[in-house]
Amino acid sequence: MNKQNKLFLAIFIVLIFVIGGEFIYYYSLQKPPTESSKKTKQTNPNTNKSPSSIAKKSNIERITTSLSKLNIAEVDFITNMVTMLAKKDNTTTSSILTNKIEGTLVQIDHKPGKIDRLNPYEELLLIKIEGRSDPLRVIYSKEELKNVSIIQEKSKKKFLFTDLKTGDKLLIEEKFDMKNFTPLSTTITKTN
């Protein structure tokens, strides 16, 4: 091996050690996140937002989740409608979406809880719908409960959530204001 090749080999080995040292230095500077920084990251995205914008985002996420269960033609129609309603020069004065869900109540939770950090609930229903392998989860926040009514189909007698039992056949009719992305009303009808 001549002197020139030995010099290139020595420079190459030194460069490998320098680059390796830089990687070690770079990764040693990155500390694992502590519990307090994890909490800060979880709460920081919403600190500068108003409660109405957080609620609007939550409602949009819930609507998007509902849309994921529809066929492509229905999703295209609703996506076009929502896009039209979101335009600043929109002249639509009202747009109401009505969902009807029929099924058998398989589980009910009367204790307040959270699905995730954006979706707290006061009441949770799991409804088995024919043709679906898994039950549909229907949640109601404290604000939404103000607009929920539960009635018996034949007698039109009003009920409370605590009167619902597993095995009840239910028809849930939900109305959403698509212009403002807010729920308007929900009627839960016991059909048995």
Please summarize what this structure is.
The chain has 192 residues and is of the alpha+beta class.
Q: What does this entry look like structurally?
A:
38% of the residues lie in helices and 28% in strands. With 192 residues, the protein is an alpha+beta fold. It has one domain (47-190). The chain has a 7-stranded mixed sheet with strand order 5-4-1-8-9-6-7. The protein has a two-stranded antiparallel sheet with strand order 2-3. A hairpin with a 5-residue loop joins strand 6 and strand 7. The radius of gyration is 27 Å and the shape is elongated.
Q: What's the shape?
A: elongated
Work out the strand percent: 25-35%
How many domains comprise the coordinates?
1
Q: Rg from C-alpha positions?
A: 27 Å
Task: Reconstruct the topology from this structure.
Layout: H1 3-29, H2 35-43, H3 51-67, H4 72-86, E1 96-109, E2 113-114, E3 120-121, E4 123-128, E5 136-140, H5 142-145, E6 148-152, E7 158-159, E8 169-177, E9 182-190
Parallel strand pairs: 6-9
Antiparallel strand pairs: 1-4, 1-8, 2-3, 4-5, 6-7, 8-9
